[in-house]
Design a protein that fits this description.
Blueprint lengths: L2 H19 L6 H14 L3 H9 L11 H10 L15 H17 L3 H18 L2 H20 L1 H9 L10 H8 L13
Amino acid sequence: MNAETNDLLFSAKYFDNLLSSRKENDHQRYLCILSAAAYYLCGFPGSSYVILRGIQSGDLDCNNLDTLITALITKRPNGELQDLGANPFGDKIRGYTEVLRNFISTGNSRESLLSTLSDLRRDVYGYGNDRELLFVDVLKALNEKYVNDSVWTALPTFSQLDVTLWDHVPFWQRLVTDQEVITFCRIGVG
């Protein structure tokens, strides 16, 4: 494990312990998201998923960027987005979730996924508050890791076969339609 990963893992554990140390915490949702994101970026997606299972609903004044982070970590882009009508980033968020759904189910739109997130990031940098700035950068880092670790990238890399050769395999057909098991777990990561 390199020094950056060690530092990130320390942060994940710090946030996790901070959450565990207090029964009632005004910042519980915020700390859960930061801890889950740090674990995910360290290569511990299971730990991040467990942390998010206990997350409480709440408004973090971040225009659904927290929900996008949890949707990406849990691989559920149909997550509970609050009403996007008055959200200044609503169109960009809708665009990103649509492209993410397409990427999860087909592996297509990798460039569109990065592009729509860049558009959202540019808007948040222009008009967002401090928490939104942090969350959009966290989302960008998570997105890059997700794309690189996804079944669409990892399986062809490790099998040295084009992804189209897997189309006729029943396992592959089940894998790409199952939203819960869509990320191919790399052996030895973390």
